[in-house]
Amino acid sequence: MDNLVVIGIILAMMIVLLATGLYIHSVLLASGIIGLILLEGFGILPGLLGNEPFNRVASYTLTTIPLFVLMAQFILHSGLVQDIFYMVHKVSKGKNSLLGILTLIIGGMLGAVSGSGTATSASLGQVAIPELRKHGYSAPLAGAIAASGGSLSGIIPPSIILILYGVATETPVGSLFVGAFIPGILTMIVFILVMLVYFQMDRKKQQQVEEPVIHEVHTPEKLAISRLVIVSVIAILIVLIIFGGIYSGIFTPTEAGAVGAFVGFLSALVLGKVNFQFFKSSVVETIKLTGMVMIIMIGAQIFGRFVSLSLLPRQLIKLIEPIMDTPVLVLIAISVVLFFMFMFIEGAAVILMSIPVILPIIQELQVDILWFGVFVAVICTIGLITPPVGLSVYAVAGVSGISSGSIFRISMVFAVVAMVVVCGLMIAFPGLATWLPNSM
Amino acid sequence: GDTEGTTASSEDETITLRAATGLSAQHAWWEASMVPWMERVEELTEGQVQFESFTSGELVSVPDEAEALETGTVDVALVLPIYQPDQFPMAEVTMLPLNHSDTLIASKAWKKLLESEEELADGKTYSEMQFGDFKVFPISTTQEYSISTTGHEFNTVSDVEGTSLRTPSRIHEMYAAKTGINSVTMPAVEIFDSLSRGTFEGAFYSIADWTGYGFQDLFRYTLTGINFGHFNSFIGMSQERWEEMPENVQEAMIQANEEIFEPGAQEWINRAEKIIPENEANGGKFVDFADLDPAVQDHFNNGIEETWTDYAALLEENGLPGNDLIKMWRDLLIEEGGEVPESIMNLE
Amino acid sequence: MNGVWKAYNIFHYIKLAGIWISGISVLLMMLMIVYDVTMRTLFSSSIRGGFEIIQNYMMPLVVFPGLAYVYASGVLPKMDLILERLNKKAKKIMIFFMLLLELFVLVLIVQFSWEYAMSGLDRKTAFPAAGTLYPLYPLFFLIPIAFAMIVIENIFIFIKNILDNNPSMVMRETENKPEELL
Ligand code: NA
Ligand code: NA
What we know:
The structure holds three protein chains of three kinds. By secondary structure, chain B is of the alpha/beta class.
């Protein structure tokens, strides 16, 4: 069958299946498998379905997913984060907007120790959403904050996306990391601003309906000063060990997942929270999240194979050839195409399938390869919170029970604003990405 | 798909072949061997054969290319047999450390090994024993592997022992164990980050391949004049798919392979020659093996000899002709101008 | 329906065993990496072949044994735009359609991953680490087993929807109620 016809059928099928509420991994698997059959016949399946699930999972780099989630679980069950949020609540003297800002900043900080936006979102969802809800954030907004905060791991170094890009284009990964720093912070700031607007809107709405503004039912039990000191010291130690360990070279960003989990476990031990129940709930939740992320990644992998074979990326790129004389237009067109691809497809897969096609165009336009890598990583990060395939949102929905649809309605706005502002600024001022690496 | 293949006996039907590699599109093997080969085949067949190519693991990842050929996921691919010592245990022979060789010497020896008619065991040639399921088009090996570090120098034997280096193959692990080097394995994508932060000191790597991971910015000390083998590869098709090709296409493919072979090898040398001055300008140091302390030289050389015999013994243990294979490889290398330690020369 | 529930309870224990294998594996994986980092930092020696063993043994053991439990727990995400707004009958038809589609996809994965595992057994697939070869093919069997268990779960859900009046995509609507977590 003709490629374009098959692509049309499969995209329509995807939208219908997603809307009817089929599990997202099944949508990806079904669309991928049926697409492959339509393109190539049954004969193509054994070579792709047989080994992909194992190959996708058997990856050292992906140990960060279970281990950063395990770290989050240990820290969560040690009561540490609740105490910290309590302290911040005290400090903010009832200014609840500060909690949302803090969550996004914590997301950015976690991003500096984690390479995977999905894992960070899941952890953040578990720790932050209950606290945000207690302080007047609607469930969808709280979900969107956790998802977008976690997605920052995709751009704030270390980042798996930047590593993949560096390998695919032979760009030094270290320079990419340095270059991504300012755009990463910029993305975080945009998320914070959009969040504040939403928070104010929510508040007005609640006041109009004359509902009690905030559920102050929950009065945190008084914490002893000594405990607050211990908690603060432990929290600072965790951050120091992870950041210090990575940046001094004692362990790699990947190994930081394991070290972080172990340090989280030791903290719980010090705080006297370790017992059988502690292990049971931490571990079961970790496996649930890991299984969820991995089964979607397997689906994305097989769907990605269909997309590759259908030559969809190349067809998309062909469309933009007539405007090659105006680089800015091409860049905007490429960003829009990538934005849509990242909407539908898991980020690493998009990088792998589009770079071989886009890179020659970028080189012809004489655009800086490093700049473009950071640019792609920003769009990819944003793609983690856009429907229908937004792994960060699914991770948060999975851990919090908040429906993914309602989170998407808000996170999509986060995404579009960040896309326009950050990408726009990057096109207008390329130095945002290139200045730091060039001056080091 | 299969349909084109079975009906392709007539000379004017277009044959579209799916070509893939897990390597990046800028990798020397793809850019300077596979792409020219495909272009030449298209030219020689006047467009009868067309290639649809997938790089960077877009369709197949390293080292699954051989399997993808067998299942028919792709029609033609760059196969990297050293990554699968369980399936191709005798492919690692080109990674054996040497006293002297270069890309051209090793590439020609590798081509001769693949095309050798000489019986290695059980009435079979080397290629029949290892790659019987494939149609093999030899391409160049990599440039020789060197040891490079982020600054750590080898002035005494104790500088060598306990140094952590990233090892890319089983042979290097054997060699590291012999010389007291601590071998580190990690995904290629993480090396840059770990090296730059001092998680370990250096790696066995070929200079021409540095840019793939940005190592030209990192390495400050490189040992030349001793040679830690050559990684190998070939363009492969499944026998079945190969036999479906019309005769004129088969001829075109073989002719194109002959034509691209040497320029493909030369590319490695060109890349290295471009990188070395750049690295030196960045403060990189290239130290000749002959200038090292004699005790350090002996230490490295003993490791070389033992690695050859250990590798042969390992193959023999598994019922493979290890002793004959290393002698065959030695002779081919010498023929092309390579050098090995004396005790290896004396093997009979 | 009673017999079905009895059978399902037995199946539940198998899934529990699976998630415990996964859980212990994740703790082991953490300890292995921490041990490796410690040894490297203090004694500049690391676990020989640690990276390959973690990647090829530990990761599959973390992910696959617990997968059926994860599936049954209802955490797997979906977009619920239409289903909840349908009447019971339409909802049931939709659920049957989705279950059949899931089964079609899952059965294909079971079949081909089984074939892959058998061919691995045939070739004695192994991976090199620290100069030795470690068998890899036994791990391949985790995949058809994991997905076959999800097939069984789906068959239970299918039977439940035939016998029971209330259409549902899960056997037990218990775990992960939003309120419990929030
Ligand atoms: Na990050
Ligand atoms: Na998306």
